[in-house]
Write a structure and sequence with these properties.
Chain lengths: 682, 244
């Protein structure tokens, strides 16, 4: 039956040569039509048709339709290796009038500073630029493993070229700050495309004299869980077992040698410290600018430059606190803590106050028997194995080289090289986020410790890491926006030594080196008057009512104050103007009066500054009631003309004040000598 | 029905998405109690960049008819496409509250998310919560706002950032004050930010920022102000979209 049917079919199509010819022709024609048909029914044609329908009913439809270029579109940028066909379907990316359309692929691209034609799409979004189907362009396929980047990590694209912080990329900036402040680059190499390294900004203490500072019990409890001692501790949790921690603490205690500080006579201890006096000295010395303490409600109050001090009495030995307060540089020559010049009575009061900050629960369950030599040896082995010396200086253990994998191109790591943990989706961002969150989920034998990050922080760190791509490392140098690299500026001579001793650079920045907690002092000598600077160093009072972080009182000797004042006044001057170019004697009482009217009327300066303490309330800028004894008239004038030029990033906007108005305002401000009283000029 | 605004479109999409799926069975521990109402405790009207985690978790409370918190009541969190919740299902704690961290979707705009519970008879109770996702320009505007504007325009003080709002004679408009700011055109906002209050016969306490910020910075600020206004900003003039 079937055979008969087949036989008749064969006769019909292949019966004689003309039938064969006809059949082959038809097959040939049909196969010729496959390609055009595939093209005709392709996805992108469907989207372009849909787009035409969408715009037809809109008021500006005719214009939009004219903008639409039919067929496959391509952005080709040879020098960057960009071949992006995304605009074939995403046809409305550049149409401002489509702001209300939420339907993809027709949404307008949000405003960004880079035109589509110069950068294309995949540099930031990833995906496969040359693909012309939705699946291939967006997802990972057998031949393409980089899918579209989820929006939460999009700022990583900016990080490939912009190596310095950008205002519009808070997440990327935070991620880089966290990588630096968590000390990631102490174990991992993170080389930026411009050849500079991402340097750590944390401050792990050296451990060669550790036994001077604390007990083995505290070391044990701390390594077991640093965040149990201080929630803000930057030391990560290594997840060591009780026995391992016992042995590490045994080794760290055994390797310790007495510090130079311990060889000096111990400061006299105060038998009965007065807590009120201690608290007031702690306040006056502005310890809280850098150190936080938990208040009664359990909220941390204070800065984060130094460690939290809530339980410092449980951690540090009493003699060590005294010696440290006398001169921290004796114990740790690299510390950020300044050398305060405390007198013996002050030392006793303050160290008594700190010793009393204890928490008896913290060490209640730690009972360690005397360490055996085997435990010490095993402890040393663990210290080497876990790379403790990558961060801490330790007697007898060398800082390991290339301890952890190089992350300079981690943002392009091929997925085939990654061993995914269970439950982690097979994409690079998910891998990085999971690795940052729970490193040991990828294998119990891994050494990477666990950092305490919030979900936001994990996203930020992942974003920053994703910016370290192959493309970033290999693209033309002209595309890079250079990273900010701290200078190695070092002030000279005796003043330079003093400034190091006082750790000015922990908070202030000068000539491109230093911290950002306090004002930049590069042009301080043009800005302030000599007498004011001397008084300020003797007794720093705050200039800004709304600030809680303030300059500490170092108890400097008159000779030291003169050395510092002379140096600052002579060396730290702006080349833009001469600080003596405007003399207060130029100003007449009439000018002062006119300036006052401008201050309160036209420019409403009292919105942010206080002169009359009864009526003025603004407390954004510094109080100005004695600005005439503080700043030089030339600085005031030039600052009013262009605040950003004098102090980059200041909140005070440039108001394009005319020379005449600026001079009158300067006259008024220069007349304010103290307590808001104007000193009449003869 | 030819007039459509972006927020409405997204809100509508949000509604469809949230109404569409109602979990039939609890994917976690079974509820031990049921309330009759669900109210918001914290976490609405937050802003975050697209695809990002909201700074604060969303916290809701399930109450009994007397208005007291119910412990062990089920709460489902759901939202439009792209929004993720951790956890998406929870039982209320001892104070009657349940919370979830929220990751917004990848498209800028307003997101309406829902927290739902069930009465003992199976009747669903929904609570709608609005959150805002910012695009690049709006995020830039937010950063500029935090640096230059919020010290006066945001009345809330924190220990780290004391507000100057109360110290000013003419009170500045908080940027969420849509009732006032939505009536101003983009040009008007640009003029007052660039030239200051005095130049426009308004309070001189508002200084000019046109010589400090770039043109694109100013546009970013305006984009931010528009994004966060409450009620939502609707651009003036006709905007046509296809009849749906």
């Amino acid at each position: 039956m079937l055979r008969e049917k087949l036989g008749s079919l064969r006769r019909m199509f292949l019966g004689d040569s003309s039938r064969v010819f006809g059949t082959v022709s038809v097959i040939f024609l049909v196969s010729l039509a496959i390609a055009p048909a595939k093209n005709h029914f392709s996805e992108w044609r469907h989207y372009q048709k849909q787009y035409r329908k969408l715009v037809r009913d809109r008021a500006e439809g005719a214009t939009l339709e004219k903008h639409l270029q039919p067929g496959i579109q391509q952005i080709w940028i040879p020098e960057q290796g960009v071949v992006d066909r995304c605009t074939t379907c995403h046809v409305g990316l550049r149409e401002a009038s489509l702001a209300d359309v939420s339907q993809q692929p027709f949404r307008k691209h949000p405003n960004i500073p880079h035109p589509l034609t110069e950068f294309g799409c995949v540099i930031c979004h990833r995906g496969q630029g040359t693909a012309t189907t939705v699946e291939e362009a967006h997802s990972s396929t057998k031949s393409w493993e980089q899918p579209l980047l989820p929006a939460r990590y999009i700022e990583s694209g900016c990080g490939q070229c912009h190596l310095a912080p950008l205002t519009g990329t808070p997440q990327l900036n935070l991620g880089r700050r966290l990588i630096a402040s968590s000390g990631c680059s102490r174990c991992h190499n993170l080389q930026r495309p411009d050849g500079t390294k991402l340097l750590p900004t944390d401050d792990p203490p050296p451990l060669p004299h550790l036994a001077d500072k604390t007990t083995r019990e505290w070391i044990y409890a701390w390594i077991k869980n640093p965040q149990a001692y201080s929630a803000t501790a930057s030391m990560p949790n290594f997840g060591l077992s009780d026995d391992q921690v016992r042995d590490v603490s045994a080794f760290l205690t055994a390797q310790s040698t007495p510090s130079p500080a311990a060889q000096k006579p111990a400061p006299a201890a105060n038998a009965a410290p007065d807590p009120a006096a201690g608290a007031s000295l702690y306040g006056q010395s502005f310890c809280a600018s850098c150190h936080a303490v938990q208040n009664a409600a359990g909220i941390l109050v204070g800065g984060d430059l130094g460690p939290e001090l809530t339980r410092i009495g449980t951690k540090a030995r009493p003699q060590w606190i005294g010696a440290w307060l006398r001169n921290p540089l004796d114990y740790d020559p690299g510390t950020r803590m300044p050398h305060y010049r405390f007198g013996d009575a002050q030392l006793a009061t303050l160290s008594g106050f700190l010793q009393a900050k204890t928490d008896s629960d913290f060490l209640a369950n730690v009972h360690l028997a005397e360490a055996t030599p085997e435990q010490v040896a095993h402890g040393k082995q663990l210290v080497v194995e876990y790379g403790c010396a990558s961060c801490h200086e330790i007697n007898g253990v060398k800082k390991p080289e290339n301890f952890a994998p190089d992350l300079s191109r981690i943002g392009s790591k091929p997925l085939v090289q990654i061993a995914f943990a269970e439950g982690v989706p097979h994409t690079l961002p998910d891998y990085l986020a999971a690795k940052v969150q729970k490193p040991r989920a990828f294998g119990a034998s891994l050494k990477m410790p666990r950092f305490k990050f919030t979900p936001q922080q994990i996203d930020a760190v992942t974003t920053a890491l994703l910016g370290f791509t192959e493309r970033a490392q290999t693209q033309p140098a002209a595309l890079r926006i250079a990273s900010h690299v701290e200078s190695n500026y070092q002030p000279a001579g005796k003043a330079g030594q003093l400034m190091n001793d006082l750790r000015c650079f922990s908070c202030h920045s000068i000539n491109g080196r230093g911290g950002d907690m306090a004002p930049d002092l590069t042009w301080e000598g043009s800005s302030v008057q000599r007498a004011w600077l001397r008084d300020f160093l003797k007794n720093p009072n705050t200039l800004r009512p709304a600030l809680i972080r303030r300059m500490p009182k170092f108890n400097l000797s008159d000779a030291d104050i003169n050395t510092l004042t002379d140096y600052i006044m002579t060396v730290y001057q702006t080349p833009a103007f001469d600080r003596d170019s405007i003399a207060s004697s130029e100003f007449t009482p009439a000018m002062v009066e006119q300036g006052k009217e401008l201050f309160y009327g036209k420019y409403a300066c009292q919105s942010c500054h206080i002169i009359d303490q009864k009526t003025d309330k603004g407390y954004i800028g510094p109080a100005l009631w004695s600005v005439g004894s503080w700043l030089t008239p030339a600085w005031i004038f030039h600052y009013l003309k262009d605040p950003q030029a004098m102090r980059p990033g200041t909140l005070e906007p440039n108001q394009q004040i005319s020379d005449n108005d600026a001079r009158l305002l300067t006259a008024y401000l220069a007349s304010l000598k103290s307590g808001g009283k104007q000193v009449a000029k003869k | 029905m030819r007039r459509l605004v972006p927020s409405l479109a997204i809100l509508a999409a949000a509604m469809f998405a949230t109404c569409g799926r109602k979990p039939a069975t609890a994917p976690g521990p079974a509820p031990t109690a049921y309330g009759t109402a669900i109210v918001l405790s914290a976490g609405d009207k937050q802003f975050a960049s697209v695809g990002n985690v909201l700074d604060q978790p969303v916290v809701v409370q399930v109450n009994d008819p007397q208005g007291n918190g119910v412990t062990g009541a089920p709460v489902w969190f759901s939202g439009p496409h792209g929004v993720k919740f951790d956890p998406a299902y929870a039982l209320t704690d001892s104070s009657g509250q349940a919370s979830a961290t929220v990751v917004l979707g990848g498209i800028a705009g307003r997101y309406q998310i829902a927290a739902s519970t069930r009465e003992s008879n199976g009747q669903p109770k929904d609570l709608k919560i609005d959150e805002i996702a910012l695009d690049y320009e709006q995020t830039l505007g937010r950063q500029l706002n935090d640096h230059y504007c919020s010290r006066c325009h945001n009345p809330e003080s924190t220990p780290e950032r004391v507000s100057n709002f109360d110290n000013l004679t003419t009170k500045p408009h908080p940027f969420t004050e849509g009732d006032t700011l939505n009536k101003m055109t983009g040009e008007e906002l640009l003029a007052i930010i660039s030239h200051g209050g005095a130049a426009l016969s308004k309070s001189a306490e508002m200084p000019p920022f046109g010589y400090t910020l770039t043109k694109s910075d100013l546009q970013a600020l305006i984009a931010y102000i528009r994004a966060v206004s409450d009620p939502p900003y609707r651009p003036s003039g006709l905007v046509y979209a296809k009849h749906q």
